[in-house]
Backbone:
């Protein structure tokens, strides 16, 4: 999950290297082509699980529509509010959205550790947003930042939904490659019309084409393959919380590569995000249980029936 987040953190900076390409084209090209490649690679597994996937077609379609909406909202958010703010809002609020989905749909109880980590991560997110919004120089800039934040919240909601959908499929004995390939493949198909309408600049120069190829192959294809493997072992709310590494990486790259300025409050926000990751990833101390050999500590973090799915990767 952390490796996937590290790759995703490079997307905003990579997008700035092709300034002639609009956010809709970048989003549709990256997620659309990356999703179709995932489906192509997973085609044998999808074919063997077609009947099972049809039985969960509502979950598959919910995930696919969320996959299609997410990149359009995410890259538009970064375009309007800046790389740091767009990434931080989109990813930073996703754990809360994911927890809400799991609480309402699955009735899942959240641990104190998760709540502490989410609190640290959200505080870090707020600090980063405040630090960036303080740089707004006029009303138009402020309006753009606020609109970008709104689109970031939409991206967070759709990110949480497709994470939950993929995790639910994996927990139903569907291998992660088949589940991710089906969800992202259909999502990629939904993005093709957007790519056809807006993607002309992607082939206008070698630089633009290289940026598009990198986005599709590295953060989207490789990143989401890693994400699928991670979802076979952790709950969706934990996965989205671990992905809080992405906005921290994006903010640092925005400063070092893009030239965005980040004040002290922004660096404090990044520190809190890193603290959130430390809380989530530090192994919990094991305690002897009087209830027998049942592993209570990891009951909520590893869904039932996922071991056999993970072995098929």
Residues:
């Amino acid at each position: 999950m952390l490796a996937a987040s590290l790759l995703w953190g490079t997307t905003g900076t990579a997008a700035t290297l092709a300034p002639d390409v609009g956010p809709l084209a970048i989003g549709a090209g990256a997620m659309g082509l990356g999703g179709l490649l995932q489906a192509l690679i997973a085609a044998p597994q999808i074919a063997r699980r077609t009947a099972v996937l049809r039985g969960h077609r509502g979950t598959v379609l919910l995930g696919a529509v969320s996959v299609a909406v997410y990149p359009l909202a995410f890259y538009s958010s970064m375009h309007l509010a800046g790389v740091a703010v767009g990434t931080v809002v989109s990813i930073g609020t996703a754990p809360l959205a994911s927890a809400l989905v799991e609480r309402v749909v699955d009735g899942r109880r959240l641990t104190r550790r998760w709540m502490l980590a989410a609190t640290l991560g959200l505080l870090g997110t707020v600090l980063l947003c405040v630090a960036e919004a303080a740089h707004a120089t006029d009303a138009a800039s402020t309006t753009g930042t606020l609109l970008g934040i709104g689109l970031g919240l939409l991206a967070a909601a759709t990110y949480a939904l497709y994470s939950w959908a993929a995790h639910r499929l994996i927990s139903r004995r569907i291998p992660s490659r088949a589940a991710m390939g089906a969800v992202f493949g259909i999502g990629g198909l939904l993005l093709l019309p957007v790519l056809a309408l807006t993607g002309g600049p992607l082939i206008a120069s070698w630089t633009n084409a290289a940026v598009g190829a990198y986005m599709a192959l590295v953060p989207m294809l490789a990143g989401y393959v890693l994400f699928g493997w991670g979802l076979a072992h952790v709950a969706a709310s934990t996965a989205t919380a671990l992905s809080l590494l992405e906005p921290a990486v994006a903010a640092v790259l925005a400063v070092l590569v893009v030239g965005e300025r980040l004040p002290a409050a922004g660096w404090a926000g990044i520190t809190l995000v890193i603290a959130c990751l430390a809380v989530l990833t530090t192994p919990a101390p094991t305690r002897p249980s009087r209830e027998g050999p049942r592993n209570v500590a990891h009951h909520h973090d590893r869904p039932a029936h996922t071991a056999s799915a993970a072995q098929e990767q």
